[in-house]
Amino acid sequence: MKRFALAGNPNCGKTTLFNALTGSTAHVGNWPGVTVDKKTGQYKKLDEPVEIVDLPGIYSLSPYTPEEVVSRNYILDEAPDVVINIVDATNLERNLYLTTQILEIDVPVVIALNMTDIVKKNGDTLNTEALSKKLGVPVVEISALKDTNIDELMKIADETSKNPRKANLILNNNDPLYHLVNDCRIAIEYKGVKNPLFHAVKLVELDELETADHKDLIPMVDEFKQTFSDDIFGTDFEAYMADARYKYISKEFSHVYEKANKEDKTAETKSDKIDKVLTHRIWGLPIFILIMFFIFHFTFSEDLFFLNKIFGLEFTNEGVINYFTGMGYEGEALAGIPSLGVFLQSWMGFLSGHIIGVFQWICSGFKEYGDVAAEAASATWYGSLICDGVLNGLDAVLSFIPQIMLLFLFIAILEDTGYMARIAFILDRAFRKFGLSGKAFIPMLTGFGCSVPAIMATRTLENEVEKNRTIRLMTCFSCGAKAPIWALLAAVASFAGFGYGDIFVFTIYIGGIALAIILAIFMRVFTRDTYVSPFIMELPQYHTPQPRNVGAHLWEKLKHYVIKAATIITASLIVIWALQTFGVENGSFGMVEDMNNSLIAYLGKGLKYIFYPCGWAIGNDGWKYTVSSITGLIAKEDVVGTMALFFNNGSEESLEATIGLSASGIYAFAIFNLLTFPCFAAIATAKAEQTKKEFLKTLGFWFGISYVLSAVVYWLGSLWEVAWWGGLLVTLALVACIVIASYFVIKRNKKASSIVTE
Ligand code: GDP
Ligand code: MG
User: Fold this and answer.
1) Distance from residue 33's CA to the centre of ligand 2 (Å)
2) Which residues contact 484 (CB under 8 A, 6 or more apart)?
3) Ligand 1 atom closest to Cα of residue 12
4) How far is the CA of 8 from the centre of ligand 2 (A)?
5) How many Å lie between the centroid of ligand 2 and the Cα of residue 552?
6) What residues contact residue 380 under an 8 Å CB cut-off, 6+ apart?
7) Which ligand 1 atom sits nearest the alpha carbon of residue 143?
8) How far is the CA of 417 from the centre of ligand 1 (A)?
9) Best CA proximity match to 248, nearest among 140, 169, 138
10) Residue 667 contacts residue 713 (beta carbons within 8 Å)
11) 2-160 topology per CATH
């Protein structure tokens, strides 16, 4: 099968094109590091299907970043039939820098000039013909986002792939370096190495991969250095070449892109205007926090806009109450209007309750629908397994799905508009002084989706210390699978006298970011590490979120949840059900009346003492929380599934009403589950990314920090409850520690710059 490779700068639209070509739903991220590995798919509209390879985004073919190495090796070693070089037309000159290097390889190339929809909208013009003529390769104007001209591009790529192409060099023959490159090329060609021109140029640049491969030719370059030194760059030929490329591009191609309105060149774009507000030096961070707050408010609040808390709004009309609560509350008044998320969750709960009801009715042998059937079903082993075990646990996980999808809808919109990329920038600017680079925030923010790709994305960090630190702090960023835990605890909060479910979830997310920053500061104090990665990032233009992107993102999430629920979660629920249903009672083994006599209760009661300091493990139900946390290692959704099994087993009350955690208990339990070991999949990923020693340290860190902070939160919370002045005192002392640590870190840090372009 023919293979077409997509190569280009980060954010030029490779993944968007890849998805359009292959019908796949790969993640379109607005930041670098999302695609470290290449992805493949098939395009089927030509005579024969072709394989499309989405390479990681790169600015050059020098081996400075893992992305560059992956892309370079692919093009050189795997010799694709054609390289489709995607060029962002709105950033033409910068993008062509990579193009000049790709053209030094003996491979057929087609240029896909992307984002032409923006060019058209601005009324600007492109002289594609001149570009194609000078570069000597076909150039096709496309818009990956709007699906324009994509099949045309593939036809031309297919044609192009039929003829081999000879590499060409941007230096002309009166350039001092031209002859050196040429001599090296001949020497390399003589050794029988493919793509001699490319290797020759990289050798002259003394790129580390090349010098290792062709040690014998280094003297040739060194000898030349005796005879030639540039006025500006001296004998730094790498800088000389970079400059030569930019000069060439600007000389040959600056006229290719013509702005409609010449005077307008420096005028602000709409994006600039939005950025003036959203990435404002002072207001940027508070605005981000406010946006996050509203997202959680609309998803988790039971009292929208605090209408009940502030104005005492209440509903007593039964029709209204049932409409808002999915036929939930009977007789009670409804305090305020529930948010959309709570509304969806109530109705989903109503629906799934009836689904379980039907199964209970069947398992009971068609007794009276409702409580009678439920009791009869629980008495049989299969009714207990199906209704109390699997369905009850799955219901707890799945009934939060509409609510969690709403949360992800908001996050997907933030990402697709281009705002998420700004968050890394805002955080970089705010915390660079404390030794934290935006480069590390990017994988961390990816962690809000899933820790597995997030931990993989730490490969983009070239500094080992920073990479290990980022992996360890990953659990501070609540992954999607933990969302049902927060949704459940938010519902529990309203029974624990702390009614603000939305504020609870908001503090888990924002508090997680804050905690990661504080922990990173302390880690820097203790490791005596002073390096801060430079942060280079391009801010994409804002655009209205595309239903296709957002929809694809949500669909992926939903599919993932449902598949996980049907496989791994169901399987673990069956095991937990068995351990909880069987045990020793009255001296004989069998199904137990009282769950406290079950096998799992013995196990949990033994282990719970370990977690006594954390508060939530104290008391009769302590073993249930302990076991639930442990099952979370299999999949974080299992925490909720297991709790449903333990707390709602045949009970008439709702799950959240039977969980008896106090406000500090809720927080302590949440903190423990947030920070402790992630699921096995993420643990395995960390193991693959770290050395054995660092990995063991990571495991220790995850357990230690979750244990200690859970205990601190519990005791501090309890102290506030009994003696607020004591709580205040200890809190102030903790804040003082943070301030002192930050001071040391700021004082010691090396200066490192960050560059953000637009
Ligand atoms: P990658 O980093 O090269 O994979 O780029 P992505 O495919 O993730 O795209 C980066 C951003 O550019 C996304 O927000 C896309 O929606 C947007 N984008 C991609 N292609 C086009 C296009 O043709 N026109 C416009 N207006 N935006 C595009
Ligand atoms: Mg991409």
Assistant:
1) 8
2) 396, 397, 400, 404, 636, 637, 639, 640
3) 3
4) 10
5) 15
6) 363
7) 23
8) 11
9) 169
10) yes
11) Rossmann fold (3.40.50)
Q: What digits encode the pLDDT tens for the residues 96-154?
A: 999 999 999 999 999 999 999 999 988 889 999 999 999 999 999 999 999 999 999 99
Among 9, 16, 88, 420, name the best residue to mutate to test ligand 1's pocket (greatest count of ligand atoms within 8 A of Cβ).
16
What are 369's two structure tokens? 């629908």
Distance 40 CA to ligand 2 centre (A): 12
Q: Which residue has the higher pLDDT, 459 or 732?
A: 732
d(Cα 102, Cα 295) in Å, to the nearest integer?
44
Question: So what's the architecture of 178-258 in CATH?
Answer: Orthogonal Bundle (1.10)
Identify the weakest region by mean pLDDT among 15-29, 221-235, 355-369, 511-525.
Answer: 15-29
Residues, CB within 5 angstroms of ligand 2 (ion): 15, 35
Q: Tell me the two tokens of residue 573.
A: 């629920």
Count of positions (residues) in the chain = 758
How many angstroms does the Cα of residue 25 sit away from the middle of ligand 2? 11
Using alpha carbons, list the distances in angstroms from residue 642 to 161, 183, 395, 490.
Answer: 56, 70, 11, 17
With contact defined as beta carbons under 8 Å apart, do 638 and 572 qualify? yes
Determine the atom of ligand 1 nearest the C-alpha atom of 148.
Answer: 23
Residue list, ligand 1 pocket, CB within 6 Å:
8, 10-16, 28-30, 57, 114-115, 117-118, 143-145, 540, 543
Q: Which ligand is nearest to the CA of 31?
A: 1
Contact between 426 and 756 (Cβ < 8 Å): no
Q: How far out from the chain centre does Cα 600 lie?
A: 35
Residues with Cβ within 8 Å of residue 124, at least 6 apart in sequence: 257, 258, 259, 260
CA atoms within 13 A on the CB side of 251: 9
Write the pLDDT tens digit of every residue in 549-597. Answer: 888 888 888 988 899 899 999 999 999 999 999 999 888 898 888 888 9
Computed over every residue of the chain, the mean pLDDT equals 88
- CA dihedral sign of residues 455, 459, 464, 465: negative
Between the CA of 16 and the centroid of ligand 1 the distance, in Å, is 6
* Residue among 231, 294, 346 nearest 502 (CA): 294
> What ranges do the domains of the chain cover?
2-160, 178-258, 405-477+511-546+689-757
From 141, 145, 147, 149, the mutation candidate for ligand 1 (largest count of ligand atoms within 8 A of CB) is: 145
Q: How far apart are CA 120 and CA 257, in angstroms?
A: 12
